[in-house]
Amino acid sequence: HLGAVAESLADDVWQIRLAACEILGKHGEAAVPHLGAIAKCLADNDIDVRAAACGALSKHGEVGVEAAAQYLEHQSWEARQSACWAIGDLGQAAAPHLGAVAERLADEFWCVRAAACEALGKHGEAAVPHLGAVAKCLSDND
Predict the structure, then answer these.
(1) pTM for this model (two decimals)
(2) Which of 2, 10, 73, 120 is the most core-located residue (most Cβ within 10 A)?
(3) Phi, psi (deg, nearest 5) at residue 59
């Protein structure tokens, strides 16, 4: 049944994509084969779907962070922003990707830079090596 739910992640109706992310996020290990499809929703046009994808990925630790990290370099600013949000919510499993998040502090879109700052802020001591880059954002005009 989860395969059918995962197929709904590509539905034309945003509410169905949202519901599919939420359902898959509640199914733990059974949803792991569908994390790639959930991660694709980080580039969704609808912010609620992107947020639901972040929530679903954040429940899967290291596997979820690997899926999200692939979107840090995506052409869509929405995907980069969402990847930062997801990594911010993934705790210690995300530590190996904080350098890539810190690179988003120089993103051309202010909302991606803000999401990267927020994500790094959630990681406390693990983000200390990136404080210089975060400090530069304090003079950001956006």
Answers:
(1) 0.87
(2) 120
(3) -90, 5
